Amino acid sequence: NFMLTQPHSVSESPGKTVIISCTRSGGNIASNYVQWYQQRPGSSPTIVIYEDDQRPSGVPGRFSGSIDISSNSASLTVSGLQTEDEADYYCQSYDYNNHAVFGGGTKLTVL
Amino acid sequence: EVKLVESGGGLVQPGRSLRLSCAASGFPFDEYAMHWVRQVPGKGLEWVSHINWNSGSLGYADSVKGRFTISRDNAKTSLYLQMNSLRAEDTALYYCVKDNSRGVFDIWGQGTMVTVSS
Fold first, then answer.
1. Are B91 and B114 in contact (CB under 8 A)?
2. Nearest residue to B81 via CA among B2, B6, B3, B4
3. What is the per-residue pLDDT across A31-86, written as a single tens digit (0 to 9) for each?
4. Which residue of A99, A101, A106, A107 is the best one to mutate when testing the B interface, meaning the one whose CB has the most B CBs within 10 A?
5. Which of B4, B93, B101, B108 to mutate to probe the A interface, most A CBs <10 Å?
6. CB of B46 within 8 Å of any CB in chain A?
7. Which whole number is the average pLDDT over B65-75?
8. Alpha-carbon separation of residue B58 from A50, A96, B1, B20, B79 (angstroms)
9. Which residues of chain A lie closer than 8 angstroms to B109, CB-CB?
């Protein structure tokens, strides 16, 4: 099986850009799509990026996703940070059994 | 409005059983796979189980395999999780989650809390 490793926390100022990484250990990051979920305090998670870089309708264009095969990682980029972006973010993919695997989560603080 | 409402959580002693339910509305329930995902308060997300649209394909996390059983009743637009031989480490908020047919968790319920303690 494999793990998805995220930084425990990141912080940045309003208006700036932050990048949250998700590194896959074991297997190729490109072998299964990566999704990103946002969880605001006290709320259920919501999808912000699916299939590596696709943004659902209703999610601001400030959110974007990508994968980097050389580093075997996925990234979530949030530009023009707003206070409402302060939340936990989780990456997610699938293993060879088609079982979902989540990263440990990253707490984004907008200072 | 697409909605998932979980119920059935509560306080249960170790070794006992509990059955969670999830009532779905606002979408053709019988066309979509469904999942259970849990979260220990203050901790990360853990996928628990999935079931495809016609119950023909089931999957379980290693941590619950052999103890938990997922099922669905399409006529009642409901998803279930039968949890047996519960352990303290099963204590968590359990979310019912809709799959968009491409492995994306596109709709989440509000969760039901399960506490396993003597």
1. yes
2. B6
3. 999 999 999 999 999 999 999 999 999 999 999 999 999 999 999 999 999 999 99
4. A99
5. B108
6. yes
7. 98
8. 23, 15, 27, 17, 13
9. 44
